[in-house]
Amino acid sequence: MTNIVSIQGLQKRFGKFQALNDVNFTVNAGEVVGFIGPNGAGKSTTIRILLGIIKRDAGNAEIFGKDVWKDSLEIHKRISYVPGDVTLWGNLTGGEMIDLFLKLHGGGDKQKRDELIKRFELDPKKKAKGYSKGNRQKVGLIAALAADSDLYIFDEPTSGLDPLMEAIFQEEVEKIKKSGKSILLSSHILSEVERLADKVVIIRQGEVVETGTLDELRHLTRSTVTLATKGDVAEMAGLKGVFDFNQKDDEATFSVDNQHLDDILVKASKLGVKKFESVPPTLEDLFMRHYEG
Amino acid sequence: MKEKLASWPTLFLLFLKRDWKKIVVWVAGLGLFSAAYVPAFEEITKGQGLKGMFETLQNPAMISMVGPTPVETAADYTLGAMYAHEMLLFCSLFAMVIAALHVVSHTRKEEDHGLLELVRSFQIGRQANSLAAMMEILFINVLLALFIGGVMISFGADTITVEGSFLFGASIGMAGILGAVIALVMAQIMPASSGATGSSLGIIGLLYIIRAGTDVSNADFSMVNPLGWTYLTYPFTDDNWLPLIFALIFSIIMVVLAFTLEGNRDLGAGYLPEREGRDRAKKSLLSVHGLFIKMNKGVMISWLIAFVIMGAAYGSIYGDMQTFLGSNEMMEQMFAQSGVSIEESFTGTIMMVMISLVSILPIVIVNKLFSEERRSRLSQLYATKVTRNQFYWTSIGLAVLAGLAGIFLAAGSLGGTASAAMEDNVTMDVVDFFAAGFNFLPSVFFFIGLAALALGWAPRLGKVVYVYLGYSFAINYFGNILDLPEWFSKTAIQSWQSRMPLEDFNAPSFLTIIVISIALMIIGYLGYHRRDLMEGA
Ligand SMILES: Nc1ncnc2c1ncn2[C@@H]1O[C@H](COP(=O)(O)OP(=O)(O)O)[C@@H](O)[C@H]1O
Ligand SMILES: [Mg+2]
Questions:
Q1: 3-state class (DSSP) for residue A43
Q2: C-alpha to C-alpha distance for B269 and A25, rounded to whole angstroms
Q3: Hey, which residues 270-299 in chain B have their CB within 8 Å of chain A?
Q4: CB-based contact, B516 to chain A, within 8 Å
Q5: Which chain A residues are Cβ-neighbours of B287 within 8 angstroms?
Q6: Which residues from chain A sit within 8 angstroms of residue B295, using beta carbons?
Q7: How many distinct helices (H) and strands (E) make up chain A?
Q8: In terms of C-beta density within 10 A (0-12 exposed, 13-18 middle, 19 or more buried), how is residue B48 classed?
Q9: Do A86 and B380 touch (CB under 8 A)?
Q10: Which residues make beta-bridge pairs with B338?
Q11: How many CB atoms are located within 10 Å of the residue B372 CB?
Q12: Distance CA B180, CA B185 (A)
């Protein structure tokens, strides 16, 4: 049994609106799967079905080989979940909420809890209504990370966190990954997925449009390059793999097929590079590229 | 000050545009409810009707519900006098509640949702929103007052004078304004909108109960009660405009107070201080029922205290009853003939009122589960070893406990105070009060059952349970005064129980309603068990 999560032909409609059309993917043991897609694509809906919060209309969804709706209690004993918008009771403190989550989860590691509170710089004595969005998110993350589970499900978990905290989250996820646990990470921050995920599932309008390792996907994408040269930068425009060329004085901005990066750098250094900036493909680029065909 | 209020007219117009449908329903609905029963009341006045009604309403139980009349003899009791006597307090109460809810939703609630932050980032003064909300309330209530006056005059009934009609309308309109200013102050003091709503309604309820006590003992004391400034205008008899002037002055003071409070606090904060909490949870919190108790603790304690006060307020009236009988020969005879004491008669009526109010708390608790669900607070919890079963039955269990405690406290406090007030001439002991109270247990269960049914199958309809409670209360309220057809009375759940201690305990009806209620809870569970949890929807 290596499939921790397995989803086939999943469908869900809300009234007339078909939120999920056809969702298929698996998460294998020890694997980190990045689940990406634009807003409203159906990521949270898929995850809610996996948690038994809502019921699927058609298809199959299993975790640990058990049905996600019927056996939700059995499944929940072995998973941790953090929603994208952690909501807390205003009159409870962060510390109390974490303890509550851990207790209801069935224990959890006290030492780990305290360590995480320190790392995330959370004030556990503050009432939740005084927390910012980022701090609420930390409460959910600490509760999930301190619990010992076999599968961790994160739904855009770092929204509202500052970059420093985002990095800490990523380190913690890497630790979990090293200990052989499985992770389903929904995100729209490609760099986060890039760093952590073994496999990426792209969903759009309720359908999985691409599944594969990041490298497999990345060859499809372009980086955005800003380049200023001593020579005439316009010469770059004609190269293979350069698109959307825009020039302003001696500075040009264009996108580059990653396969052709080498040729382009060779050419640029011949012209004499004054300035070079490359922005890796964002999720949007990935989508644009994917839909340009 | 001027810049703080900048652009309020823009917001005011925006409110009107946004709310116009609500305003139409509000003015037409409440207006017709207040004014349009003139022909129905004309029917009652035929024959000995007026005289009989006058005597009935001399009963302290009735005064504690509907209020006093300045008329001293049955001969002077006209259609107008009766209409104002029976309708004005009730309609004023309604007007207050609706206006209070509206104000909280336009001020504190929008603030909690972060809408105000957006609004204030434009060129709009700090207090423009509150002023606009008050102006809207003023506009609506002036409209309401004129509408009521106009409708009443249109019937062309004797003794429904033009001055009286507009005074009647103005009293109800002023009630709305009073409710609104109370809510506006509470919206500043409380740390969140739910607290502002709860405390405003609590205050209005308390004013109603306090005036019950003062109306029976000495109506002059009701003149210091803001709610008193509405029905003590006595339209069609004394036509006294003075209380409205008190009300106006009071409203202005409250608005100034609210504005001062608002000006000195941060957006999103309240005046009640925030204390530092604990960094680790107490053992008692670490379970679903521990959490739910903590979640509901504030509401439960405040309501239970309110029940005790309510019982004590009504209980204190018992001391005056024999005095009243001594002064009214006809009543004395009536009670002597019927074989029940005046105290028992009063208990039967007042217990129905109290237990209707007690029912609110369990409904609040059951509905709370859905509001938690909507705010997505349950999802991360649900992903642990917790089941829906636990969420549901913990809420229902807590509601049942709250209902039991509510009845116990209300009946006990009524009985205790009454026994003390009656001194030597005791006709009932405390056990009788408990019996009369718990006799209504099925109706409390029934409301829990209805709320549970809604929670399971159509959670958005949870609020409708309050509407049915209000409806039942109105049926019982008017059932005391008017002769409603049997089938009509029976649409109110409380009327399925006997009126103890006047009547004997009706065991079959008691058990039947309990069983039906439990069935509703189970059916609700079947729905809750299988439906999608709604997050942010
Ligand atoms: N309870 C619901 N009722 C109606 N529509 C919903 C509900 N939940 C989600 N949707 C709709 O389903 C689509 C997918 O939403 P979601 O799964 O939250 O997207 P994502 O998490 O990928 O941003 C959206 O268009 C959203 O509006
Ligand atoms: Mg989402």
A1: helix
A2: 46
A3: 274, 276-282, 285-288, 291, 294-295, 298
A4: no
A5: 103-104
A6: 89
A7: 10, 14
A8: exposed
A9: yes
A10: none
A11: 19
A12: 9
Q: Between β-strands A242-248 and A251-257, what pairing exists: parallel, antiparallel or unpaired?
A: antiparallel
Report chain A's terminal Cα–Cα distance, integer Å: 36
Using a CB–CB cutoff of 8 Å, tell me whether A54 touches chain B.
yes
Q: Where are the alpha helices (DSSP H) in A133-275?
A: 133-146, 163-178, 190-196, 214-218, 261-271
**Rounded CA separation B382/A48 (Å):** 11
| β-strand partners of A35 | A186, A201
**Measured between alpha carbons, how far is A101 from A120 in angstroms, rounded to an integer?**
17
Structure tokens at B230: 């509405």
β-strand partners of A212: A200
Q: Which residues contact B372 (CB under 8 A, 6 or more apart)?
A: B295, B378
Q: Beta strand A66-67 with A17-28: parallel, antiparallel or unpaired?
A: unpaired
Pair of tokens at residue A287: 């989508």
Interchain proximity A83–B380, CB inside 8 Å: yes
Whether chain B has a CB inside 8 Å of the CB on A86: the answer is yes
Q: Which chain B residues are Cβ-neighbours of A48 within 8 angstroms?
A: 379, 533, 535
> Residues near B341 by Cβ (< 8 Å), separated by ≥ 6?
B335, B427, B428
Asked whether the CA dihedral B299, B302, B308, B312 is positive or negative, the reply is: negative
Residue A83 distance to chain B (closest CA, Å): 7
Distance (Å, whole) CA B499 – CA B257: 45
> Residue A154, CB half-sphere, CA atoms under 13 Å: how many?
33
| pLDDT tens, chain B, 537 aa long | 567 777 788 889 988 998 999 999 999 999 998 998 888 888 878 777 788 888 878 878 788 888 999 998 888 999 999 999 989 998 999 999 999 999 998 887 777 666 666 666 666 777 888 899 999 999 999 999 999 999 999 998 889 999 999 999 999 999 999 999 999 999 888 877 777 888 898 899 889 988 988 898 888 899 999 999 999 999 999 999 999 999 999 999 999 999 998 888 776 666 666 567 788 888 888 899 999 999 898 889 888 988 898 888 788 788 777 777 777 777 777 777 777 788 888 888 889 888 998 999 999 999 999 988 988 888 889 999 999 999 999 999 999 999 999 999 999 999 998 888 887 666 788 899 999 999 999 999 999 999 999 999 999 998 899 889 989 988 887 777 777 788 888 899 988 888 888 888 999 999 999 999 999 999 999 999 999 998 765
pTM of the predicted structure, to 2 decimals: 0.79
Residue nearest to atom 6 of ligand 1 (CA): A14
Instruction: Name the residue type at position B422.
Output: M
Distances (CA, A) of B345 to B64, B270, B474: 13, 45, 19
The vertex-A147 CA angle with A143 and A148, nearest 5°, equals 160
Give Cα separations from B329 to B59, B183, B481 (angstroms): 12, 45, 21
User: What distance in Å separates the CA atoms of residue B466 and residue B481, rounded to the nearest whole number?
Assistant: 23
* Terminal Cα-to-Cα distance of chain B (whole angstroms): 40
Question: Which ligand places an atom closest to the C-alpha of A19?
Answer: 1
